[in-house]
Amino acid sequence: MKLRVRSLSRRYEGVTALDDVTVSIPEGRTALLGPNGAGKSTLLKCVLGLVRPTSGDIEVLGLDPRRDPLGVRARIGYMPEDDAHLPDLTAVELCAYGAELAGLPPREAIDRAHAALFYVGLDDKRYMPVQGYSTGLRQRTKLAAAIVHDPELLFLDEPTNGLDPASREEMLALIADLRERRGCSVVLSTHLLADVERVCDHVVVLAAGKVVADAPLDEVLGRGDGRYLVRVKPVAERFAAFEQALRDLGCASEPSPDARGEWIIRPASPDDPGPIWEAALRADVQVRHLAPRKASLDEAFLRMLA
Amino acid sequence: MALPSPDRPTTTADPKSPAGVVHSLAYTRYAGARRSPAFAPLVIARYALMAQLRQRGVKVALLLGLVSLAVCAAILGAKWSLPTMAASAGFGELGGAGQLARAVRDGEADVLVWALRAQILPTFLLTLWCGAGAVSADLMAGAFQFHFSRPVSPGGYLAGRVVSASGWALCLSAVTLLVFSVERLAFQSTPLGAARALGLGAVAVLLELSSLAAVALGVSSLTRRKGLAQAMFAAIAFAGWVLCHSLGALLGKEWVKSLDLISCVDGVVAQLNHQSTLHGGAAFVPALAWLGWTAGALALAAWQLSRAEVNRG
Asked: Is B28 inside a domain boundary?
């Protein structure tokens, strides 16, 4: 595990930002989801050692950020949601500065600053002051500054905010590549569930300071609502008989089959798709695909919050 | 085997992955040595000094300081050369040796006083530009998150900012002090006397710059608006001077005049030169005032940093 949090609570005056949070984040790409005010940023700041928890334990890469905050921060990277740059510094200088603060010698820092900026797609614009950048360039610069010192664990707070579709795809490709090629585990805090489905393999959902889910993405999506996706041979004249047979066996079909013969069916017992097979047999319909229907992450997210 | 063109994508995502491309694979893992977080204040100071040199105000203040140095060096040279010429010409033979000895002592005291006075305006302007808006600018640009998500402690950050707030002023003052000391040695003083003047001058310069930098950072930590922080710093320096000198004259108390930010260092320097007009308990007032300004401002800045949202707890 890259990160373990046990019974973590953080209370501000009159507000409980985190309430007995226990999560384990494995290697790989993990999404930290939750509505506004769920406690995502507070959790990240506790992990970074920027905020002292009221109670509970944290272990980041085997270290306790309360006892060794500087040691933890040397081994992790953080890309904040808001602007985080220094006035009058160019992107190269900013990244080299970040690398030196993380302990790299000056020569290594400048070399890696160039490499990281090339990696995120900043070419000759890297010699311009950061305050003149567009949103997309700033996001790329923040990512380069977060990875320039080669962190083992990377926290990204809304990395695709304000990006156009092409830039968003590139940012997601970089996030995927960081794990696959560089072996850097990523924790992605975002509201964009589509991004999570594209790049993450583990999900932690927070709501009102509590953990609602902490599971692999497949498991979260697979926790369907008892419906099955059924694809049959598209012979339209048998569809009415199939529908009647389903009704007779206590199954609900929804919505109506489309032109390709795709059905969403809820049998009487969610764990037993037998009546679907039985209905197909009675109506003489050839079943080509039958599997529990996975909800979209949006649906799963709303269900968990409800 | 042909190498891929740098202009062309080097990887493409599979259909299930994001459709974007990674343009360069030059970024690799780092396995080299890492330095201790104790270096962080020096790194902060070095990058800040580099960025400050791009500001027009800093360039103008440095130029002004060099002009001031040249003018004062010429005046001091003329002043110091006259007693030497008079003594060597045999004027006033009975009192010549005593006059020369007194002139040497006074000249060494001049090094301290003139080193501060020659650069008072450039030093003030440099601290104004480099220190009085430093924390404000960081607050505005989100640089707290940048610093404190890396192995930088609030104390390390503050130390780096103090050095960077006074760095260029220190360079200017050090050059000034060195030039005056060498000039003094060339005209009249002994190497020991020049070294003494240089040492005391260095103490005076450090006292002056540390109090100015601390107060500049203290007011800078109070607001996100750089201009407001600079105006507050200027008001503390000038309005404080006017207020203390007016009150001192009104009350007839000389020590009241040494309470403000600028005069407290002058008071300490006068004591170093054995030229102070304050006696008894009042003799400690300039040093206590300096301590109050410096420690108070640094404590204020440290407190503000500890209250910053990103560093709460």
From this structure: no
The reply to whether B75 falls in a domain is: yes
The complex scores an ipTM of 0.81
pLDDT tens for B261-280 read 989 988 888 888 777 888 88
CA distance B293 to chain A (A): 28
Mean pLDDT of chain B: 83
Distance set, CA B66 to CA A57, B172, B217 (Å): 57, 8, 25
Domain-located, residue B244 = no
Full domain range(s) for residue B82: 39-224
Count CB atoms within 10 A of the CB of residue B290. Answer: 21
Residues A161 and A139 sit within 8 Å (Cβ to Cβ): yes
- Separation in Å, CA of B185 to nearest CA in chain A: 40
Q: Which residues make beta-bridge pairs with A15?
A: A12
Report if residue B246 sits inside a domain: no
Q: Which of A189, A197, A161 is nearest to A48 (CA)?
A: A189
Rounded to whole angstroms, the Cα distance separating B65 from B71 reads: 10
Domains of chain A: 3-222 (3.40.50.300), 228-305 (3.30.70)
Among B16, B25, B149, the residue to mutate for chain A (most A Cβ within 10 A): B149
Q: Give the number of domains in chain B.
A: 1
d(CA A188, CA A159): 8
Asked whether residue A5 carries a pLDDT value surpassing 60, the answer given is yes
Are B28 and A115 within 8 A, CB to CB?
yes
- Which two tokens mark A298? 């949006």
CB atoms B138 and A86 under 8 Å: yes
Q: Tell me the count of A-B CB pairs closer than 8 A.
A: 162
| Chain B residue with Cα closest to A167 | B20
